[in-house]
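User: Show me a protein chain along with its predicted structure.
Assistant: Here is one chain, sequence first, then structure tokens.
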Amino acid sequence: MNRIFRLFISSTFSDFMLEREALQTRVFPRLEDYCSSKGAKFLAVDLRWGITEAAQGEHDTLRICLDEIRRSQELSPRPNFAVLLGNRYGWEPIPARIPKDHWDRLLGNANTTDQKTIRVAYYPKPDTNSIPPAYVLRHREGDWDSNQLAELSVCDALRRCAVLFKESEQLPYFSSATHQEIVLGAMETADAKQHVHVYVRTIQDLPWTEEAKAYIDWDSKISALVPGVAERLKRLELELRTKLPGMVRDYSTVWLGSKDSNLIADTFLEDFCEQFYKDQ
């Protein structure tokens, strides 16, 4: 049976469309040809192009991504994971499922208001078919909409209740989806420093305004950056550099703004693609 190399690409989405498209057209076909010449197959796993609206409505986006990372780790020889990191920390989802032991502890830490906020956001009985049993976030319809729940208020309530958890237990409540992918694909992988490459992009003259909302964590409701994400992103980058010495590649480009449809210069792409190909 042919070996299959499954390479999961982890990044935030709107700010890395340029790189992802370049990888799809310039790099992955070359890796497919190379693997074929060695009697193997190459498969790039880039789920940001293929998550359905139904999956998003049922809060399955992150679960699908994490399951694909596990599948790549189980079925594929290394390399099986790569990271693109820029100036966005990314979407911070409410946990779609909360294990019952966490649920009990969260509510035990909650005041009356936070208890109500959390209970209304999740179905009242745990899914006992899950191992371990877990409370499930309501779908984006019915009770969720009729109660006009703000995801931010649920997130804030969960964070207040999880603040006393051990650091390793806090991840689902305090981290972005991309951060959780990186923890599973790189931080918790014993041999990651031998095969997981990280590509960190710097944008010169990047404006920290709404003009650059595709490239930064901009909150249109408050017309400012999402509070706290810059610090969380900085800690994530530092942890990657510390845990994966020699595996972090730095590259840069220039902000063009309305002068270009991509908003940034694409002159770096040739070198970026060549380095990515050599690394894999």
